[in-house]
Amino acid sequence: MRESRRDRQPKTDAHLRAAPVVPVHNPPPPPVVSGSDSAPRRGRGPGVVLGCAPPTEGVPMTAAALQVSELTVGYGPVQALEGVDLEVPEGAVVAVLGGNGAGKTTLMRAVSRTLGFHGGAIRGGSVTFGGRRLDRLPPDKVVAAGVVQVPEGRRVFARMTVADNLRAGGLGARGGRRSAAAALTRVHELFPVLRERAGQPAGLLSGGEQQMLALGRALMGGPRLLLLDEPSLGLAPLMAERIAEAVREINAQGTSVLLVEQNAALALGVAVAAVVLEVGRVTLSGTAAELKGSDEVRHRYLGVVDETAAADAEQAVDASVPALTRWVP
Ligand SMILES: Nc1ncnc2c1ncn2[C@@H]1O[C@H](COP(=O)(O)OP(=O)(O)OP(=O)(O)O)[C@@H](O)[C@H]1O
Ligand SMILES: [Mg+2]
């Protein structure tokens, strides 16, 4: 008897168990997975299974920046998230992978407290940032706490100039003029094109440049945690890689990042850990290296083809398609 596809799958995804969540200090050291034997964990649990090398002497361990626990969200009768657990350690990039409608944007909205603008509401669980509950704050207080979202589709103010878009991002930021000027310098260093195009309407920028502007606008608020919703969406591979590089740079300068992506290869190249969302639930979680090695992630999100399975599928199609007779008018 032929071995079924399921039987042939490597056992890497199979023997998964919970492990304690250990926070990472800034910048994140190479993660060490405790208790999971280099395999991602399946299903819900205490969040990303992420450990780290022992701290250097004198460097204090910091608490998780963002902690999402048992989060359940709905839009009227639609249940979009159910019991989602996720953790972004201080100074880390954590990715959320998943297909269309998995609930990635909903998770972002729940953290930034913008769910209400979309007719959604948190029905259970909690969101804390630096130990403080976010799920009881209005959106402006979430921004003031240092959590800034870059929405899906950039949403730059198309008719306003590039400079005014950046200025808008700095409104309400603490620190006065001097820190606003420092933030602008930092944004221009990261994306020189935004200085060159400062006087032009943002709507004239290319998709990639608009993504840079959206990132720059968020950075003007001096965020401690950036929520990035599909920053590579619709961009050519080179521009997507340029954006990924910018995210690495932003993180290297000390900002934690929650990165939502359908482009799993890009996300796992930037993140230290990731979760996979499917129909509102976390189905896999682990370090980026574990997820890259996961058979399921490779086939479903990294486009790696299981050749034997593809041959099986082809055979099945061949067998089920009836031969057509020639059509004569
Ligand atoms: N404003 C809304 N009102 C009602 N249902 C919504 C609303 N926004 C999202 N949903 C539903 O919630 C679920 C999760 O949607 P969400 O936009 O969070 O998914 P996503 O993972 O971001 O998808 P995509 O990759 O297409 O952006 C889907 O079933 C979607 O139809
Ligand atoms: Mg989305």
TrEMBL record:
Database matches in SMART domains: AAA
Chain intervals for the UniProt region annotation (Disordered): 1-45
Keyword Nucleotide-binding: yes
Domain ABC transporter: 66-304
TM helices/strands, residue ranges: none
The keyword Transport appears for this protein: yes
Gene3D superfamilies referenced in this protein's UniProt entry, alphabetically: P-loop containing nucleotide triphosphate hydrolases (3.40.50.300)
Molecular function via GO: ATP binding; ATP hydrolysis activity; branched-chain amino acid transmembrane transporter activity
Pfam families, A to Z: ABC_tran
Keywords for this protein: Amino-acid transport, ATP-binding, Nucleotide-binding, Transport
Compositionally biased region (Basic and acidic residues): 1-16
InterPro entries to which the protein is assigned, alphabetical: AAA+_ATPase, ABC_transporter-like_ATP-bd, ABC_transporter-like_CS, BCAA_Transport_ATP-bd_LivF, P-loop_NTPase
One of the protein's GO biological processes: L-amino acid transport
PROSITE patterns hit by this protein: ABC_TRANSPORTER_1 (PS00211), ABC_TRANSPORTER_2 (PS50893)
PANTHER family registered for this protein in UniProt: HIGH-AFFINITY BRANCHED-CHAIN AMINO ACID TRANSPORT ATP-BINDING PROTEIN LIVF
Family from the record: Belongs to the ABC transporter superfamily.
Protein name from the UniProt record: Vitamin B12 import ATP-binding protein BtuD
Gene for this chain: btuD_10
